[in-house]
Amino acid sequence: MGKSLQLVEHLSPGRNLDAYMQSVSSISVLSAEEERELADRLYYQNDLEAARRLVMSHLRFVVHIAKTYSGYGLQLGDLIQEGNVGLMKAVKRFDPSMGVRLVSFAVHWIKAEMHEFILRNWRIVKIATTKAQRKLFFNLRSQKKSLGWMTNDEVKAVAEDLGVEAAVVRQMEGRLASADTAFDAPVDEDEDRAYLAPASYLEDQSADPALQLENADWEQQSQQQLVAAMQQLDERSQDILVQRWLQEEKATLHELAAKYQVSAERIRQLEKNAMKKIKGSLLQA
Questions:
Q1: Can you name the CATH fold of 208-284?
Q2: Which residues form a coiled coil (predicted)?
């Protein structure tokens, strides 16, 4: 139990990020022989202590990768925590017989978790949903030399390097340059910015009191007409319509046929005739 709590403590940066990074940097790095021995114990014997040591010895590597994504405006501690999830997934899937070091195998899993976290939290509205858009997003972020708009030559170079159309690069550049806008501007905003808030120019069609009252009256009147039309039917026809259309758990034709001791086809005919009468009554009303 103590070792499990220690592992959880190391995997969670918490509030004191500096102390966490200092702590993981003090954990010794495994040699190739030590790593292979631990990996064999985990892979062939499901040794959880070996898994713990493999994870612990690579926490500093997660911190190193997380720092490379510091330009996305997200908390470093959150990135580290997501990367730790990827590290644990990598350790679980690591096959020592492949002949590669764990760090080479884990980098994919660590970055995958961080990428997913960045795309979920970088903007309120997702800017990259397909696999191609995600690749372009991260490549374009790393290749842009400044915060300004790229020249046509720069766009062409990026497009050729990534194997996409120049228009696709321009589209992603526009998404990167956009910013989230609150639907309602804060009350202390200046008038110009408040006017640009979507709440200032988007019309709510359902907010018209007269229209709401009209819809409510129409709905009430329709219900009254339906009740009046139903009362014109015989008791059996009423029950068939209720059981077939108005109940939460609708009855089948065969269930109603057994109830009234007639054929399912006869129930279908009664239902059809009742619906025809209801429709005629509503049209007259």
A1: Arc Repressor Mutant, subunit A (1.10.10)
A2: none
